[in-house]
Amino acid sequence: MPKNMVPYIANETPDLVAEQIDNLERIFPECVSEGKVDFALLEATLGNFDALAGEDAYRFTWAGKADSFRSVQAPSSATLRPDFDRSINFEGAQHVYIKGENLEVLKLLYKSYYGKAKLIYIDPPYNTGNDFIYRDNYIEPKRAYLEKTGQIDADGNLLTSNPDSRGRYHSAWLSMMSPRLFLARQLLQEDGVLMVSLDDNEFHHGRLLLNEIFGEENFVATVIWHKVFAPKNTAMYFSEDHDYILCYAKNKSVWRPNLLPRTEEADARYTNPDEDPRGPWSSSDLTARNYYSEGRYEVESPNGTLYRPTVGTYWRVSKSNFKELEKDGRIWWGESGSNMPRLKRFLSEVKQGIVPQTIWHFSDVGHTQEAKKELLENVHFEITENVLNTVKPTRLIRRMINLATDPHSKDVVLDFFAGSAATTQAVIEQNLDDGGNRRSITIQFPEPLPIPEDNLETIADIGEARIRSVIERIQNGKDNNIDDALVKTLGVRILHLSPSTFQTWEMKEGITDEKNLEQMALFEGGIDDEASSIDVAYEVALKEGYSLFLSIEQLALKNGQRVLKVSDEPEEEGSLSDRLFYLCLDDSLHPDLADELKLNEEVLFVCLDSALTDSLKMNLALQCRLKVI
Predict the structure, then answer these.
(1) Lowest model confidence (mean pLDDT) among 81-85, 462-466, 591-595
(2) I want to staple 71 with a disulfide (CB 3.0 to 4.6 A). Which of 6, 81, 138, 385 is the partner?
(3) pLDDT one-digit tens code per residue, 548-560
(4) What is the pTM of this model?
């Protein structure tokens, strides 16, 4: 069988833009030619005929925008390698913590988690000038940027006395955020939601960027988090007491927030002064300013007082409906029977929850001091500068989890700016409180700490230490109130962003192009010498779209072959996985291997290309789904 008839395992992530263009071409073939989209024609096809008239239209742009979009197209050849030594309860864990650069990791998650995340919460760098470390290589060099924005001339002479204030930081921040938000949207479920913490440094630009990527029609709300319990008396102008949380749905027409649990304070507003057998109630105004043609009539109270709506207001209900409500004992005239009528609303009939509001007080969701205290209770270290400045309280994140996830649907909560891993702690503790089985996937760049301490050299190390402390604290203090099944899932899989386990050809410097081509033709590929079979299995699983909660079993075969059975997690609890593949990295394969594994045409078998003879390759290709490395 010719070598090229057996597919290879992909050594790079998919070309995301090419996939999007293919989807467009199926719907609008007239707008795509030779892989290029005619955007003006596409807009005109969708009814915006002005698009063909010229460029006189509103656009949101910044220096380096085109390059930031190109970064999405650049595939990743990296992989994620499991760290069994540092993980906790690896096999049973329902949470994943990834140490690595988040743009690369998001690309690696694309195939496995496209449309799978129910909630994405991120707390990106606030871009205050001293907390910004995500300077991707596609962002323009400073000189090119300054030239493009008119801050220096062609000779390098400054045209302004304060170049930084002209937006270089904003452009760098936008170029960093744009590709990550683009990928985040791809990973959200159709009924999923993104929530982003920001302050005034980038709130305005963040809103514009999110409008562009998610569509302005999918903007849900701007939440104000009252983050401090005392004003800052040292503030030069105003004490900044709040941050923002921008909320965007993947599809606003299908996403709805859950109601918040009712509180004792909310229920205390309902009383029963007239001993109504239907139980406690509260009253609401029966008038409104909205014009209602049947809302201008006169009513009489039990003591004979006549009432009409005040000037400019109207009864909310018609006269006939008012009479029905009064007959049913739903009109409250006051204890003396002489007050303006109000409508009785019974606690037993109200929604079993509270509609979320856009102002979140620290008394309900925590404040910055609480957040710092939580972290220091779990991680003991001396250096707090630039580490604790923007840490969030778990109560704040749990509010978002309550609003956006279902406790019993294995909902995925993703955070790719994990910081100190408050999101992981929030998911774990929320699951314990309501018996949920949510999963968390959190990603943190291993940014070096200003002064490394014992076992804490990077921000990612702080996040890992926090997760470890939270899990151990719960396990050591567990009592009969905690479900044993939940305790079994208490753990974390720690993964590292790493170079591919597949050997790939790299052009060598110091020799001619012709010589490079000659050597490339002789290159056999294969597996990196330092990679374990488990590492390879994880990379194959990622490239094939398996989840991060897969299981790997070492099979003991009669013929002595070393084979790994890789199974994805089952769709339903207690059922067997219907997604699995076998991986064998032996230098040669036994002729009876296929029979012993009971391979069939639906099962994927992966092996080294060099281990196959032509006849064995042909037989395996007929018996199963064969792919080679």
Answers:
(1) 591-595
(2) 138
(3) 999 999 998 888 8
(4) 0.82
Identify the bridge partners of residue 126 per DSSP, sorted by sequence position: none
Residue type, 36: K
- The region of weakest confidence among 161-170, 185-194, 547-556 is 161-170
CB 330 within 8 A of CB 336: no
CA dist 463 and 523 (Å) reads 41
Whether residue 56 is predicted with pLDDT greater than 70 in this model: the reply is no
pLDDT winner (highest mean) among 21-35, 465-479, 528-542: 528-542
- Give pLDDT, residue 63: 85
Q: Is there a contact between 97 and 418 (Cβ–Cβ < 8 Å)?
A: yes
Residue 516: the pLDDT is: 58
User: What angle in degrees, to the nearest 10, is found between the helix axes of 203-214 and 168-187?
Assistant: 40
Mean per-residue pLDDT for 159-185?
A: 74
- pLDDT band at residue 32, thresholds of 50, 70 and 90? confident
Rg of the chain's alpha carbons, rounded to an integer? 30
Structural domains of the chain sorted by starting position, each given as residue range(s) with its CATH number in brackets? 3-59 (no CATH), 79-261+355-498 (3.40.50.150), 278-342 (no CATH), 513-628 (no CATH)
Quick: pLDDT tens for 407-450: 999 999 999 999 999 999 999 999 999 989 999 999 999 988 87
**CA–CA distance, 440 with 95 (Å, rounded to integer):** 5
Q: Is 214 exposed, middle or buried (0-12, 13-18, 19+ CB in 10 A)?
A: buried
Q: Annotate 58-68 with b (16+ C-beta within 10 A) or e (fewer).
A: eeeebbbbebb
Under 8 Å between Cβ of 69 and 103: no
Q: Output b/e per residue, 543-576; b: 16+ Cβ within 10 A.
A: bbebbbbbebeeeeeeeebebbebbbbeeeeeee
Backbone angles phi, psi at 128, to 5 degrees: -90, 0
Distance CA 377, CA 372 (A): 9
According to DSSP, residue 604 is labeled E
Q: What is the pLDDT of residue 135?
A: 45
Based on DSSP, count helices (H) and strands (E) in the chain, helices before strands: 19, 26
Other C-beta atoms closer than 10 Å to the C-beta of 152 total 18
Residue labelled with tokens 């630009």: 205
Q: Do residues 431 and 405 make contact, with C-beta atoms less than 8 angstroms apart? A: no
Q: How far apart are CA 573 and CA 133, in angstroms?
A: 41
Sequence-separated (6 or more) residues with CB below 8 Å from residue 133: 125, 445, 447
Which pair of structure tokens corresponds to residue 338?
A: 């002489």
Burial label for 528, CB within 10 Å (0-12, 13-18, 19+), is: middle
Q: Which residue has the tokens 């067997």?
A: 576
